[in-house]
UniProtKB/TrEMBL annotation:
This is Aldose 1-epimerase. InterPro entries: Aldose_1/G6P_1-epimerase (IPR008183), Gal_mutarotase_sf_dom (IPR011013), GH-type_carb-bd (IPR014718). The keyword Calcium applies. Gene3D superfamilies: 2.70.98.10. SUPFAM superfamilies: Galactose mutarotase-like (SSF74650). Keywords: Calcium. It comes from the Bacteria. It comes from Cellulophaga algicola (strain DSM 14237 / IC166 / ACAM 630). The keyword Calcium applies.
Length: 259
């Protein structure tokens, strides 16, 4: 376990997963074992969304890639590269064509092994400061590599009527629950506020969009994304790819707490 601290803020990271963010002893991250989801956060890369209707195959300039829901990065293990009192760096490195075991097989998928036809290095960088908790992602690889990126943190809810403010619109938890597994789309947005006991403000750079998901009333996932996967048919998921410009791309999410 990696622990970061700054004044009244404390962060705990378990093998690259953000499992706790406490400010003045209040927990803001969904806890494993609580109703809702078995994780606290994860990354969606190089695909966002389901692929079953496309026979788990996604087209790239280098041929077909076998991908399950939300991509293969989540099946890989982070290596901790560096840690200080207020920051930590974790990394996953992938070699093109390497077979990655699919944890959804055989119960939820027909594909035992996943693969991607490009090398990449994916870094997840945590920084705790006066501004709050910044989570930064660096993607390195060959120029032109196609990809989607989404960050999937789950936030703890403690009141009966939390609301989300995005693009000057107020969104209730009931509205998110009604959408179900497709997730509630928020297009062209870089800042969201979650109003619960306190206000959680989330500011992003690079992503450009969000989607919201939950199946319970004690947590909500607020997910910055480069592309909303249900905007196209699953068989055309490649229409949502970004392309790596140069050899590195950077994305950030800042989480701050206020009364």
């Amino acid at each position: 376990m990696t622990t970061l601290s700054y004044k009244n803020q404390t962060v705990q990271i378990d093998a690259g997963e953000l499992v706790s963010f406490q400010v003045a002893d209040q927990e803001y991250i969904h806890q494993k074992g609580s109703p809702g989801w078995r994780n606290a956060d994860t990354e969606m890369f190089p695909i966002i969304g389901p692929t079953a209707a496309a026979n788990f195959s996604v087209s790239t300039p280098r041929g077909e890639a076998i991908q399950d829901q939300h991509g293969l990065l989540r099946e890989m293990v982070y290596e901790r590269i560096e840690a200080t009192e207020t920051g930590a760096i974790f990394q996953k490195a992938y070699t093109a064509g390497t077979a990655i075991k699919n944890s959804k097989f055989p119960e939820k998928s027909t594909e035992e092994l996943l693969q991607w036809p490009y090398d990449f290095i994916f870094k997840k960088i945590f920084t705790l400061s006066e501004a709050g908790l910044e989570v930064r992602f660096l993607i390195s690889g060959v120029s032109g590599m196609p990809y989607m990126l989404g960050y999937h943190p789950a936030f703890n809810l403690v009141t009966d009527n939390p609301t989300i403010i995005a693009n000057a619109r107020e969104i209730s938890l009931a509205a998110i629950l009604e959408v179900g597994n497709r997730a509630f789309q928020i297009a062209d947005c870089t800042e969201i506020k979650l109003r619960d006991k306190n206000t959680v403000t989330i500011k992003t750079k690079g992503f450009g969009n969000f989607m919201l998901w939950t199946e319970v009333n004690n947590m909500v996932c607020i997910e910055p994304i480069t592309f909303y996967p249900y905007a196209v048919d699953q068989k055309n998921l490649s229409d949502g790819f970004s392309r790596l410009e140069g050899d590195e791309a950077e994305y950030t999410m800042l989480i701050s707490i206020s009364d």
